[in-house]
Design a protein that fits this description.
By secondary structure, the chain is of the alpha/beta class. It contains 12 helices and 14 strands. The chain has 2 domains: 62 residues, Orthogonal Bundle (DNA polymerase, domain 1), CATH 1.10.150; 271 residues, Rossmann fold (3-Layer(aba) Sandwich), CATH 3.40.50. The strands form 3 sheets. Strands 3, 4, 5, 6, 7, 10, 11, 12, 13 and 14 form a 10-stranded mixed beta sheet that branches. The chain has a two-stranded antiparallel sheet with strand order 1-2. It has a two-stranded antiparallel ribbon with strand order 8-9. The longest helix is centred in the first third of the chain and has 22 residues. It holds the Pfam family Rad51.
Length: 347
């Protein structure tokens, strides 16, 4: 159970979330004196909060006592699910190829790279491409775009939507003829923009609260098939002296995102920044948020420059082999590299 559902004041809930306590489980072993110190409240108030937590825990235990074993699933069923899983195209055939068809639903995919490499461009492209109808080989869903940096550009989203609409019209002209052509509807740019739910987040507490709210929102909008966070990093790289607190907050957020992906069969895409890491006597570029965060996603893709060309490299995945592929950022969006010597490299 989330702390947002406890019978506490808005101020108390806000203090708990700010301190990294987003669920009842995270408060299970906290002493009143320690909680009072972290929330800057009296021990009496801390005791009242923990009593509400205890009551909520008992209710949760009672309500879930008959559903503890409902999650059982055979390995065969899991294999069947994987073989029929859907993917969201990136609009780059080489990149889709190394990803097994595109960004996989039911999984959390982390995409990181240096500024200007095209992370936000890829995020916007996915928010548009997830809407491609089934008749065109797409998923036919909607997108949630969580913007923590203010980098989402609606004008750019319109450009990509216009290009996608034109591609669909061309595909329809070539493949849908006669009576079938009348039945297949081409989406207009306005349709794409209307199906992107945009959230602007200005602090890490807002980011935590929104992550906790997504379950309810997606329950009410079941056609959402991708959640994009651009970026997961921004609000966690400043104002954090307590690294243990940051790790606890990020771990809770990662767990929520994984649950969303599995529960609703959607793709979660988190964009990450880079930082410098000292190893072997020299500094290296590495994705931000440290080693503990690196285990929070199913797949990890690193975008990088190779000369004047952009490349995507699969750094971590339980089901995909390490490989890299070139891609381009064009006025139409993400597209295959226009290099004459492009190639996919498998490691």
């Amino acid at each position: 159970m989330e702390v947002l559902r406890l019978p506490l004041s808005a101020s108390q809930k806000g203090k708990l979330i700010s301190a990294g306590y987003t669920s009842i489980a995270s408060l299970s072993s906290v002493s009143p004196s320690h909680l009072a110190l972290e929330l800057k409240v009296s021990e009496t108030e801390a005791l009242e909060i923990l009593k509400s937590v205890s009551d909520g825990s008992r209710l949760q235990s009672t309500s879930s006592s008959f559903t503890i074993v409902n999650g059982a699933q055979s390995a065969w069923d899991m294999l069947q699910e994987e073989e029929t899983s859907v993917h969201i195209t990136t609009s780059c055939a080489d990149l889709d190829s190394i990803l097994g068809g595109g960004i996989s639903c039911k999984e959390v995919t982390e995409i990181g790279g240096v500024p200007g490499i095209g992370k936000t461009q890829l995020g916007i492209q996915l928010a548009v491409n997830v809407q491609i109808p089934y008749d065109y080989g797409g998923v036919g869903g909607k997108a949630i775009y969580i913007d923590t940096e203010g980098s989402f550009m609606v004008e750019r989203a319109l450009q990509i939507a216009e290009a996608c609409s034109a591609d669909m019209a061309e595909y329809s002209r070539l493949h849908h003829k006669g009576p079938q052509a009348c039945e297949v509807k081409t989406m207009q740019p306005k349709d794409f923009l209307e199906n992107i739910f945009y959230f602007r987040v200005c602090s890490y507490t807002e980011q935590i609260a929104l992550t906790n709210y997504l379950d309810k929102f997606i329950t009410e909008h079941k056609d959402v098939k991708v959640v994009i966070i651009d970026s997961i990093t921004f609000h966690f790289r400043q104002d954090f002296d307590d690294m243990a607190l940051r790790t606890r907050i990020l771990s809770g957020m990662a767990l929520n995102l994984m649950k969303l992906a599995r529960k609703f069969g959607l793709a979660v895409v988190v964009l990450n920044q880079v930082t410098t890491k000292y190893a072997d006597g020299q500094f290296h570029l590495a994705l931000a948020l440290g080693d503990s965060w690196s285990h929070s996603s199913t797949n990890r893709i690193i975008l990088h420059w190779n000369g004047n060309e952009r490349y995507a490299y699969i750094d971590k995945s339980p089901s995909l082999r390490s490989a890299s592929a070139p891609y381009s950022v064009t006025p139409k969006g993400i597209r295959p590299s226009d290099s004459n010597n492009k190639r996919i490299k498998h490691v």
